[in-house]
Amino acid sequence: MSKPRTWPAHVFLAAGALVMLAPFAWQLVVSLQTLPDSLRVPPKFTPSWQWSNFADVFRSVPLARQFLNTVVVSAAVTAGQLLLCSLAAFAFARLRFPGRGALFLLFLAVLMVPGELFLIPRYEIMQGLGWLNSLQALIAPGVFGAFGTFMLRQFFLSLPKELDEAASIDGASPLQIYWHILLPLVRPGLLALGLLTVMWSWSSLLWPLVVNTDPEMMTLSAGLASLRGQFLTNFPILFAGSVVASLPVIVLFVVMQRQLIAGIAFTGSKG
User: Fold this and answer.
1) In angstroms, how far is CA 69 from the centroid of its own chain?
2) For the domain that residue 122 is a member of, what is the CATH number?
3) Which of these, 31, 2, 4, lies nearest to 242 by C-alpha position?
4) Most buried one in 56, 146, 168, 187, CB count within 10 A?
């Protein structure tokens, strides 16, 4: 029996990969060009090896402080998502209470609302709390989400009910069942959600621009956006900062891509 020819699919996927990698390659090329080379028409597709752009971006904005802010915010948001979303997912998947199904559908309806509609209410809340130009203003709105709850609920639903029954017979409370028995078994889902949350939090731009105006309190995405001028933008310096900001997330994705793919693929396997 002859094997099916798979080379057309591989060629197609390779071409798609090259298309997706093109923006990253262009970003790296421009980050190593001089300003006149970056503005040439037609564009110059080779670097000028202007390594000083990476030093200049640290002098243009407090990039080190913004990098630290981004790490702190991403870590705090991810920790909050993993804890609160897993608790809510456990309740929807394993506990029985009146109106559970209707409440879950209402909960998922939040995913249909554009995030821009929450900007003004969130800003007013942060202003009332006196949290403007602070890291907690960036952390608090992101520590819980409907998508994370839905994703982890699918993992909890896949676990046999006998685990809960056996633990209950031994005298375990629902919280003990959640923490000691079920949570370790949904580790793939936690890893996938954690990686998605880090990537989302790391690249978030609109909310950090709205709530924080102090450069010392900005994240990397907002700090780099401030490098755009009204009439002229130094694209090599801007792209050099983008390379510095993108590298940690790219490395994290490469290391954990298997867990991410497995977690997302499993999400739709249980109703």
Assistant:
1) 15
2) 1.10.3720.10
3) 31
4) 146
User: Residues 10-38: pLDDT tens digits?
Assistant: 889 899 989 999 999 999 999 999 999 99
Lookup: tokens for 165: 């029954």
Task: Tell me which residue of 48, 140, 156 sits closest to 95, measured CA to CA.
Answer: 156
Cα–Cα distance for residue pair 194/186, rounded to 1 Å:
12
- Looking at beta carbons, which pairs linking 22-26 to residues 24 or more positions away fall under 8 Å? 24/246, 24/250
In a domain, 98, yes or no: yes
Question: Got the DSSP string for 87-124?
Answer: HHHHHHHH---TTHHHHHHHHHGGGGS-GGGGHHHHHH
pLDDT in tens, 75-109: 999 999 999 999 999 999 999 999 999 999 988 88
Which domain covers residue 184, as residue numbers?
Answer: 64-267
